[in-house]
Design a protein that fits this description.
The chain is of the alpha+beta class. It has 2 helices and 4 strands. Helix 1 packs across helix 2. The longest helix is centred in the middle third of the chain and has 14 residues.
Amino acid sequence: MNVVWAATALETGWFSGLERHSNVQDLEAHIKALGTGLGQGYLEIRRPDGDLPYLALASKELLLSSTSSTTLAVCLFV
């Protein structure tokens, strides 16, 4: 499944509005990296054919496991 997303940049800790087109596994890897690297972040996810984000998340402590983050993304787009 492909998604379009924008998130806090790992390098700066600031939200980057640059949208990435990737599969769910790449999104999951970024969420994990935010959790272990910065411990906080902001994320917007949408379908490739949608105009607006279907999900916007902000967290001080991103403690999502790989299973829960994948499940969350898949549930939104089914």
